[in-house]
C-alpha cells in the first residue's frame, strides 16, 4: 500500500487551500474545490505521517479555515511564522518621468550591463494580457535591433507552446525581459532574475509578495 511507505505530506502554496478551495462569502463556487478537501487525505494515512503546509502569503484571517480544511488540530501541530524577508533582495521605488502607458522609463532602467549586448534578466508585472503584449512590442520598437529578440510577454492566454518557448528562453538566457501577468507567478523558479518590476499596483499585497518572490532564488543571487 502506498500509504504504508509514505513519509510525509507537504502542501506548498497553502494559501490556495483557502483562496481556491473554499467557497467565498459572495456565494460563488470555489475555483478548485478539491483544494479545500485535502484534509480528507489524512483519514487514509497513518497518524504518525506528518503534514507540512507552507506559504509565503498566508493571511492571518484565512489561517483558521486552512487549519480546519487540513484537519490541523485533530492531531498535535504548531504554526511557525518566519516573516517575508528575502536575503539578497533590495527594494526601490522610482517615480514615473514619462506617462506610465508609454513604458519609456524602462529604457533608462533596462540597459545592457558592462558593455555587453545583454539586457538584465527582468520580469515586469502588469495587470492585463493586453498591456503585457503591448508593452513588449513598445519596448522592442525603442530598443536597438540587436536587443529586440530578448523581449517577450507571458500571460495565461498564451498557448502551451508559447509558454514553453518563453520559459525555455528565460532559462537559457536568450530571453532577458518578460512582461507578465499573474500567470508568471507561483511555481516559477528561475535562479538568476536580476530585477522584478511591479509596473502597476497589484490586486493585493499577497500578489506583490509573490511577484517579488521570483527574484534572488538561486544560491548567492541578488535582485
UniProtKB/TrEMBL annotation:
The keyword DNA-binding applies. Keywords: DNA-binding, Isomerase, Nucleus. GO terms for cellular component: chromosome; cytoplasm; nucleus. It comes from the Eukaryota. SMART domains: HELICc. Its EC number is 5.6.2.4. This is DNA 3'-5' helicase.
Amino acid at each position: 500500500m502506498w500509504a504504508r511507505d509514505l513519509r510525509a505530506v507537504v502542501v506548498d502554496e497553502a494559501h490556495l487551500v483557502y483562496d481556491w478551495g473554499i467557497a467565498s462569502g459572495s456565494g460563488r463556487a470555489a475555483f478548485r474545490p478539491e483544494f479545500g478537501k485535502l484534509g480528507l487525505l489524512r483519514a487514509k494515512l497513518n497518524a504518525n505521517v506528518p503534514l507540512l503546509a507552507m506559504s509565503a502569503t498566508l493571511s492571518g484571517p484565512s489561517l483558521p479555515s486552512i487549519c480546519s480544511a487540513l484537519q490541523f488540530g485533530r492531531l498535535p501541530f504548531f504554526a511557525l511564522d518566519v516573516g517575508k524577508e528575502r536575503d539578497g533582495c533590495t527594494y526601490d521605488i522610482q517615480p514615473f518621468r514619462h506617462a506610465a502607458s508609454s513604458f519609456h522609463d524602462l529604457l533608462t532602467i533596462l540597459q545592457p550591463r558592462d558593455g555587453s549586448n545583454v539586457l538584465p534578466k527582468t520580469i515586469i508585472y502588469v495587470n492585463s494580457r493586453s498591456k503585457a503584449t503591448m508593452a513588449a512590442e513598445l519596448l522592442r520598437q525603442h530598443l536597438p535591433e540587436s536587443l529586440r529578440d530578448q523581449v517577450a510577454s507571458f500571460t495565461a492566454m498564451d498557448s502551451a507552446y508559447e509558454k514553453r518557448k518563453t520559459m525555455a528562453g528565460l532559462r537559457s538566457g536568450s530571453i532577458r525581459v518578460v512582461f507578465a501577468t499573474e500567470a508568471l507567478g507561483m511555481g516559477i523558479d528561475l535562479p538568476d532574475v536580476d530585477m522584478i518590476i511591479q509596473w502597476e499596483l497589484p490586486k493585493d499585497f499577497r500578489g506583490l509578495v509573490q511577484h517579488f518572490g521570483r527574484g534572488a532564488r538561486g544560491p548567492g543571487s541578488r535582485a
